[in-house]
Amino acid sequence: MQFATSDFSERETLFVEVVLPLSLAINYTYRVPFELNETIAVGKRVVVQFGKHKIYTALVKSIGTNPPEHYQAKYVIDVVDDHPVVTNKQFQFWEWITAYYLCNEGDVMAASLPTGLKLASETVLLLKDEQPQEVELSDKEQLIVEVLHKQHRISVDEVAGLLGQKTVYPIVNSLIAKEVIIAAEEVVDKYKPLLKSFVKLNSFYLEEENLRQLFAQLEKAPKQLDALLGYLKLSKDKGYVSKSQLIEESACGQAALKALVDKEIFYVEKRPVSRLSSDGEIFDVNFKLSEHQQAALDQVNQQFQHKDVVLLHGVTASGKTQLYIKLIEEAIAKGGQVLFLLPEIALTTQIVERVKLYFGNKIGVYHSKFNDNERVEIWNKVLSGAYQVVLGARSAVLLPFHDLKLVVVDEEHENSYKQYDPAPRYQARDAAVFLAHLHQAKVILGSATPSLESYYNAKTDKYGLVQLQERFGGVQLPLQQVVSIAEETKRKKMTSYFTSVLVDDIAEALEKNEQVILFQNRRGYATILICATCGYAPKCVNCDVSLTYHKSSGKLHCHYCGYHQNSINVCPACGSVHVEQKGFGTERIEEELSLIFPEAKIARLDLDSTRTKNGMQQIISDFQEKKNDILIGTQMVAKGLDFENVSLIGVINADTLLNFPDFRAFERSYQLLAQVAGRAGRRDKQGKVCIQAYADDHRIIKQVMENNYEQMYADELEERKQFHYPPFSRLIFINVKHKDADVLNLAAQTLANNLKAQLGKRVLGPEQPLVSRIRNYYIKQIILKIERTAAMQKVKTVLLDTIRDFNAQKEFRSVITQIDVDPY
To answer: Given strand 124-127, what is the order of strands in its sheet?
Structure first.
């Protein structure tokens, strides 16, 4: 039970339940010294000792007068904060994540709080690159800064030794708050918005009489007069004109424009613009919705009257973002906060730019590319309400909102909303729905290809459903064609991995100075090297997978653990020199395409080409600015990219998606192919899509060609019903890991038998997953398939109790068990 400190007397013995940033099954209780009674409060951080030597900052979850039953409580060392950094609603949210995803509250705390708010004795402190001007430091703070100037980095433990005191956290916290130091390595986001110069007329000359006098004044300066006339012609109702456009249209020259600026007749200011906008215009803040958009917006608001969650099913390029902006405006007008979730923040810069223009300083962006100091600052601004709109990737759902009114989940079907490792293994979309429920807020889920679960919820009246089936501005959906690789191979029309149809389409697009995106869902050069004589294929020493050849490094790489070794020309098993490359990735496509189109400028967008801090943004920016003609990419190219000059999308091999061994393979294939296709022809031109496949008559490919989501949904739903897959059942995966295969086999079978004794036929396995060894850990998987009618919380309690008893057995203490609820 939570109490305010005012509920207790100054000399009363208080005990606090705290959450430590560690994966502990239960929370610990500490005793509060009398001198801290007045400062202790729920949501504040306290310094506590855990174990023999380790010191951590923990969060006060509740305050009471009852000591722990089974151990003697240690004392709280100090209180770090003046005000709580976590709200009561957040603690409720953490409790739900802990119970639903079967993790520990410390896991949720560790995932939620920025490193700067989780100071521990091992935390490394560094000086900020840019030091603040005229900042007042105490003697102890000055001493820490002087030491950092000499040795560049120091741990919190070392600070304690340097100052000769145990409680250094308030001093460290103060230096972080003053922006003198940071508590982690910095990751700098070097992306800068594209700024352009715009010309504005001095408001004094907006009055007719003053403008008439200005004309008379400029009669003897014809070039300046041309500039003024040009401005009046181009500005119309906007009140601003692009500087480059004004010089080009009026032919006034730089000197005349500078003279007008010097006379304060014109003002020039730099403003951010979209890199995609062909005419350099800034976004129109007071945009008007199309007839279809307005109808959809009205329907959404109507549905919100009796539904808390509404699914917006809108085709690609239908203008969903503009609807979101209108809904955000309405939420802000009510004085509340808005959470806008995006699947990949680095790939959605345009949306970030656009929304920032509408809401200015009220908006915060939160994602992994920010350094820790910035994350702490954003945390505090969300907590105080200074940020009314927060845009972010999945971790933004864990921020301390105090008055949430609206949650927007864009591209809600994306699997990047799912956290796989480490715990908590939460689904940000589902967590956002519960967070909104806590705040009594509304949720809008948007997608051109909704997840089956969300669409099922909408069809069964749990969610509202609004359709937006026309592209914005009346732009037509792209022309789509499927080409049989088998047929082209038989007729000897293939050029490397490209059909004659795709080669002709690329040539035509390049001739018209239009851009092309090619999709291949495999990175690297060759998927596998294999000996033609004995069949030997090099495998990873740590994982049960074959190595992928990367030509750029000349090495064989493991895509699971990062292991790499030199490539082979001679088979180490039989000595044969007939080592062949099988399969192909984005690297190979790039090389082959450069031979067919030597004049074309080609870029590659995959995990290998985006490893640098700014790599991904640089590739996207270059392509937006038409520095490259062809972009080859993995599924990254399907996520929210919007290029005005792309007229052709090519899918190199659709079969690799369709043949993946997963019950969601067909759904994901449809989503990926439809989203990739949606990148074509997003402005005034109709785009073209060419899908290459062996299974050219596959129903999923036909449904993509016909843009028939409804049929895909109906077919998949029927199949899932027949085999008892979600949404007709719930799945929980239990991954059992150990470095010894024999120990693992015994452990997995024992755990499965124990579960079957309690849960019966709901337990499947243990089986080897697709990759049965990663980083030297062998893996076995047990699956729980639970019918919708079962009491889910009871099943989870049985599962946790069984695993706890299993882990307590001496022979299985070294076995790792990981629970993944809703693992899709």
So the answer is: 153-155, 124-127, 181-182
